[in-house]
Design goal:
Helix content: 10-25%
Radius of gyration: 15 Å
Shape: globular
Number of strands: 8
Protein name: VOC family protein
Structural class: alpha+beta
Largest sheet: 8 strands, mixed
Strand order of the largest sheet: 2-3-4-1-5-8-7-6
InterPro entries: Glyas_Bleomycin-R_OHBP_Dase (IPR029068), PhnB-like (IPR028973)
Order of helices and strands: EHEHEEEHEEE
Organism: Carboxylicivirga mesophila
Number of helices: 3
Pfam family, one: 3-dmu-9_3-mt
Strand content: 35-45%
Distance between the termini: 18 Å
Length: about 140
């Protein structure tokens, strides 16, 4: 069964925000990745290299708060107030495809579903109602 978690974008303050959230909720970061660590054909400036590409903080057994700093080369700009997406994590590629294809109908696909360097089957879109979504299946759960 799919799980749903909030995904928040920032204009360069993601690390500060997540350190604040960790102080409030406790816990440890499950993952911290920076733009400099990611393979890309698109150049990353020195100013953007240490920005957060992805971070996750477990809030409870069921909930993970995730976030990143936006980067103009990789998607839409961050606009405060609309800088949140719903992240759906599925139990299979098939479930990811069904949810992605159904929810993205008549919407705008930002990143088609595909295998990623971080070990997920992942895609992003904005649905026909203007809601941002991320759909993911993590291959590590197969082990």
């Amino acid at each position: 069964m799919a799980t749903i978690n909030p995904y928040v974008n920032f204009n360069g303050s993601c690390e500060d925000a997540f350190n604040f959230y960790r102080n409030v909720f406790g816990g440890d970061f499950e993952y911290v990745g920076r733009y400099k660590d990611m393979p890309s054909e698109k150049p990353i400036s020195e100013a953007d290299a240490n920005k957060i590409m992805h971070i996750s903080l477990r809030i409870s057994k069921e909930t993970v708060l995730m976030g990143s700093d936006t980067h103009e080369a990789f998607g839409q700009p961050c606009v405060p107030g609309t800088n949140i997406s719903i992240s759906v994590n599925t139990d299979s590629e098939k479930e990811a495809e069904n949810i992605f294809n159904s929810l993205s109908a008549d919407g705008q696909i930002i990143m088609p579903l595909g295998k990623t360097f971080w070990g997920s089957y992942f895609g992003m879109f904005t649905d026909k109602f203007g809601i941002n979504w991320m759909v993911s299946y993590d291959y590590e759960q197969e082990a």
